[in-house]
Design brief:
Length: about 160
Amino acid sequence: MIAPAEAVPASAPDLSAIDFGPVRTKVADYWKALRLTDEVLIGNLVEDCINRARLRVGRPSSPELLRRAIEEAQRRFDHALASAIGLPPSNDPHPLAAARAALLLTPGLSADSLFRHDASTRELKEKLEPLLPRSTPPEAPVTMTPVPLRFWLFKSTDH
């Protein structure tokens, strides 16, 4: 009979030796480009993005860590923006892209309130609503009048 192999604990990589400073700086700059100004909020979001990105990459020191951290920052920003302005989950990226453009291109608006979930979030929504595109004319169901059909190859029985 073969003896079962002894369980060898998998050694976790020593993350204290890895310098995440350049990644932290670039992700923080990305959050600032998205109009966040609160340094404490940015620091917390940066750490969270890096931690989530580390779960998706094989080696924490690989250059893919920065890409994954930026992707996580974009995902978190989009989710916060969608929930703040009341966009339903959808596969259509256009309404969210329009809201992002309205927020980033309007001077004087800060994205900090997206993560606060208080009265400032409501105020931001009220400021963004007039800037968001609306369908023209507004969508409304219209009744269609019956149209007689005439076939030229054979006689129609409609008239």
